[in-house]
Design a protein that fits this description.
It is a single chain. The chain is of the alpha/beta class. The chain has a single domain, classed as Peptidyl-tRNA hydrolase (Rossmann fold), CATH 3.40.50. 33% of the residues lie in helices and 20% in strands. The chain contains six helices and seven strands. The protein has a seven-stranded mixed β-sheet with strand order 2-3-4-1-5-7-6, sandwiched between helices. A hairpin with a 2-residue loop joins strand 2 and strand 3. Helix 1 crosses helix 5, helix 2 runs parallel beside helix 3 and helix 5 runs antiparallel to helix 6. The N terminus is likely disordered.
Amino acid sequence: MKLFPCNKSASGKAPADAGRIWLIVGLGNPEKRHAGNRHNVGFQAIDLLAERYNIRCSKRRYRAHYGEGKIGGQRVVLVKPQTYMNESGVAVGPMSGAFRVRPDRILVIHDDLDLPLGKIRLRPGGSGGGHRGIASLIEHLGTPEFGRLRIGIGRPVHGDPVDYVLDDFDAEQAPEIAQTLALVPEVVEVVLDEGIRPAMNRYNGG
C-alpha cells in the first residue's frame, strides 16, 4: 500500500477559509527507526488517512509535517509533529494559531496503554491521563478541551512500559492493529460530519 508520509520540505500559508478547518493530529516520534513503534500508532493513522484521501503531507512548518485536503467534504490539515512525543504541543500550538482552529475542531490520534489492544475510544477533552504528548498539547493549547481518538496498544504483563511502547507491534498484534487502523477513516468522517459525541455513542461501545 502506497502512503504519503509527511516527510517533505515545503512552506505554506493558512488558506482563506482558515477557521473552518479541522486539525487532525497524530502523535508519535520522528525518525524512521520509530515508524513501526506502538507509540507511533498516531503517525500510522495519519499516514493511512493521507493515503485514503489523497492528501500529500508535503509541507514542513511549525516544527511539523502536514498536508491540507478534504475528508468527507470537510477541510482538514493532517499533522505529524516533529518535536518528539513529549513536546508535541510545541508544534501543534503555533499551528492551531496559524490556521485559527478552535480547540473543539482539533482531533488528536494517539496510543493508549490502558486500552486493550486494538480498541478505540473517543473523548471530547479531559486530562492527559499520564500521556506526555497529550500533557504537552494541553500546556501549549491552554486548554484540555480538544478531541482525542485513543487507540489501545495494551499494557505489557512483564517488562518496562517505556520499552514496550518504543518497540514495534509483534507478529500476533499486527493484524489486529491493522484492522483498527482500517476503521480510523470511518470514525474520523463521523466525527467531522456529526461531531465527537455522536461518534462516541457509535464507536465507544466496542
